[in-house]
Design goal:
Layout lengths: L4 H4 L2 E6 L5 H10 L3 E6 L13 E4 L25 E4 L1 H10 L2 E17 L12 E14 L5 E5 L7 E4 L4 E4 L11 H12 L8 H16 L4 E5 L4 H14 L3 E7 L7 H12 L4 E5 L1 H8 L5 H29 L5 E5 L4 H8 L24 E3 L7 H10 L4 H4 L19 H20 L8 E15 L2 E14 L7 E2 L4 H14 L3 E6 L13
Helix pairs in contact: 5-6, 6-11, 13-14
The structure holds glutamine.
Length: 527
């Protein structure tokens, strides 16, 4: 058995009470160089395979005194490690240890100024007052015995409390959001000084340990297969596998006919030639396009592409397995998946008393009949950590910073039927668009950009004659989490250049428009 990451690195445990900010606490602690993990607030402490260096209790939408509200396992107190409660977490500490919590006269939401009223370890070095972000409707009315007040505001007499002897701290505000400017320093005081966690969570130490872990897990003969798309996650995961087990890792690129212009060739060149990844490309574009014939419904397109992909990938896995066995090599026993930590958080975070908490498994939607064991080298990592890994492993920065690209590819950027001719138009337009925003130095400022082909025709005039051709819409958004997004304010001269190039160079298009809708209510993709 290989050792789990939480047994190798000093780990901070974050218990999630359902706050929208819980994943941000995780991000901040990681940014301090300390490994941390999130679990639902109802997690049983006896199930912990490691002893955390400290515990952070998140905020949450409930009121501790309500019957239906979630409470944590009391064994948290038996671990004897430092505890920091944030908002609901503070209220949970008070509720649990004999304090009192009640509704405030008015809900407090937004900026507040707190005063530090006693010298203490949590606010050490942060000054006598601090700007913070509040979001609560309940307040402490009485603090538990053994505790003292360390911070207050005009309206919250118990904005911060501690029990120094037992190393328990609670704050009413949110240090994890950027609206609390010194929040990260406060978290550093807790994680590094109070918990004594070692700041050794770096991506270069991660690579070495992950390689060892994978070697131990897979053993000396078994083999691994994985699908690659040319995106950063599957490429980084594949590179790690290759470093760990060499050509016993088999990457498969299924050409579904709806990747971007030249993408298949580029992926082949980068993965195979530059990164030395053992790659097989399956040239199945015609099969996909024939199945998509006559289909206009976006959901149907997605299903057809998804199912065909699984079919082809499975038969490819079988073929490679048989071939390897004939060569006297081990069987393919593992399937590589590029699952990231946000997917894991999504599946384990606290969803409320009535919602069942999903298990860790199957995050990536593995087909059950494949009978392969999962291997997920990135499941503890956030996207920016994966990008950082990519940079350390010398993966081209074009690939490391590539915008997200949907599984069904250009098929859902061609509204209406996906024909070879429509694919040609959408691909060429998209290529020109991306090329120009890269030239203008805007690619990294934009979170996602693409061209979509609309199934409408409009009248135009070219060389004195009437044209009746299609419309390309340009989409570019800025976002941090893809849950909400603003449309990008593209400079006019750049749009001008793109528009004139597309109309001149892409046969079949006589009009280009720019999408000025934010998400919500629009989505980022058009289908
Ligand atoms: N529901 C609690 C309150 O309103 C906690 C809020 C929070 O954790 N942000 O006070």
């Amino acid at each position: 058995m290989s050792t789990a990451i939480n047994q190798i690195y000093d780990t901070i445990l974050i218990l999630d009470f359902g706050s929208q900010y819980s994943h941000l606490i995780t991000r901040r602690v990681r940014e301090l160089g300390v490994y941390c993990e999130l679990q639902a607030c109802t997690y049983k402490i006896d199930d912990l395979p490691y002893k955390p260096k400290g515990i952070i209790l998140s905020g949450g939408p409930y009121s501790v005194y309500d019957d239906v509200s979630p409470h944590m396992d009391k064994k948290v107190w038996e671990l004897g490690v430092p505890v920091l409660g944030i908002c609901y977490g503070l209220q949970e500490i008070a509720w649990d240890l004999g304090g009192e919590v009640a509704p405030c006269e008015s809900r407090e939401y937004g900026h507040a100024d707190i005063k530090i009223v006693a010298e203490n370890k949590l606010f050490k070095g942060l000054g006598d007052d601090m700007k913070v972000w509040m979001s609560h409707g309940d307040q402490l009315k009485k603090i538990p015995e053994g505790f003292r007040v360390i911070a207050k505001t005009g309206t919250a007499p118990f904005a911060g409390i501690d029990n120094e002897e037992k190393n328990i701290y609670g704050i009413q505000f949110h240090p994890e959001v950027t609206h609390t400017p010194k929040g990260k320093e406060l978290l550093r005081n807790f994680v590094i000084d109070i918990c004594g966690a070692e700041a050794n969570w770096t991506m270069s130490s991660f690579i070495d340990r992950e390689i060892t872990r994978i070697r131990n897990l897979v053993g000396p003969t078994a083999q691994v297969i994985g699908a690659v798309s040319g995106g950063v996650d599957s490429t980084v995961a594949s590179k790690i596998m290759t470093l760990a087990i060499g050509d016993r890792y088999h990457a498969v690129l299924v050409d579904n006919g709806v990747m971007r212009l030249n993408e298949c060739e580029t992926v082949k060149e980068v993965l195979n030639e530059k990164l030395n990844i053992n790659l097989t490309v399956t040239p199945t574009a015609d099969l996909f396009l024939s199945k998509l014939k006559g289909v206009t419904d976006p959901e149907k397109k997605r299903k057809i592409i998804g199912n065909t992909f699984v079919e082809i990938f499975e038969s490819e896995a079988k073929r490679i397995d048989e071939e390897q066995v004939k060569l006297g090599r081990g069987k393919i026993e593992y399937l590589l998946q590029g699952t990231l930590y946000p997917d894991v958080i999504e599946s384990i975070s606290f969803k409320g008393p009535s919602a069942t908490i999903k298990t860790h498994h199957n995050v990536g939607g593995l087909k059950e009949d494949m009978k392969l064991k999962l291997i997920e080298p990135l499941r503890e990592l956030f996207k920016d950590e994966v990008r950082h890994l990519g940079e350390i492993m010398n993966i081209d920065s074009d690939l490391v910073w590539r915008h997200p690209f949907p599984g069904p590819g250009i098929a859902i950027r061609i509204l209406g039927e996906v024909t070879p001719e429509q694919v040609r138009i959408a691909r060429q337009a998209d290529y020109i668009y991306i090329e120009e925003i890269k030239k203008a130095g805007l690619y990294r400022k934009i979170s996602q950009a693409f061209a979509a082909l609309l199934p409408v025709k409009s009248v135009g005039v070219m060389g004195d004659s009437r044209t009746y051709e299609q419309v390309i819409v340009l989409r570019a958004v800025e976002t941090t989490d893809f849950m909400t997004a603003d449309w990008f304010e593209m400079p006019y001269d750049v749009i001008k250049k793109i528009s004139s190039r597309i109309i001149n160079e892409v046969k079949g298009v006589n009009r280009v428009v720019y999408d000025v809708s934010s998400k919500p209510p629009a989505t980022i993709e058009w289908e």
